[in-house]
Design brief:
The protein is mainly beta and 140 residues long. The chain has one domain: Lipocalin (Beta Barrel), CATH 2.40.128.520. The protein contains 1 helix and 8 strands. A hairpin with a 6-residue loop joins β7 and β8. The protein starts with a helix and ends with a strand. 21% of the residues are buried. It comes from Flavobacterium buctense. Residues 23-138 form the DUF2147 domain. InterPro entries: DUF2147. This is DUF2147 domain-containing protein.
Length: 140
């Protein structure tokens, strides 16, 4: 009996640990449906960040963020930290920002895990109603 309870707790813990936004995610363009790149999401000093670690389209691998402003202006897109400063609030991570290297604009950001291998990434202005979402898939 005790062994069954222990095994059950271990399975619950394993399931809980696999339900995380941290790791590598394949980004999918919400307009074309094409795979664009891989973003690694990580935690640093209690905040969540995401960095572009791979660009899947060979013709875009050397591009720079020419439309970005401030410190990201003309930096290579590969290696760019596009998600900054999110914190966990219930099942959602928000309170930070995301930069779209395509247009150089920075938006407020909200991320929600949908199952263990799908991430809903929403960039918006003002309130979440005024924005767009992308679905990212966990890299296996």
């Amino acid at each position: 009996m005790k062994l069954n309870v222990l095994l059950g707790l271990l399975l619950i813990c394993q399931f809980s640990l696999s339900q995380t936004i941290f790791g590598r995610w394949i980004t999918i363009d919400d307009e074309t449906g094409n795979k664009k790149g891989i973003v690694e999401i990580f935690e640093e000093n209690g905040k969540v960040y995401g960095k572009i670690i791979e660009i899947l389209e060979p013709e875009h691998r050397k591009r720079k963020c020419s439309k970005c402003e401030g410190v990201n202006k003309d930096k290579p897109i590969l290696g760019l930290t596009i998600i900054k400063g999110l914190t966990k609030k219930g099942d959602t991570y928000d309170g930070g920002e995301i930069t779209d290297p395509k247009n150089g604009k920075t938006y407020r950001c909200k991320i929600t895990l949908d199952g263990k291998d799908k991430l809903i990434v929403r960039g918006y202005l003002g309130i979440s109603l005024f924005g767009r979402s992308q679905v990212w898939i966990r890299q296996k």
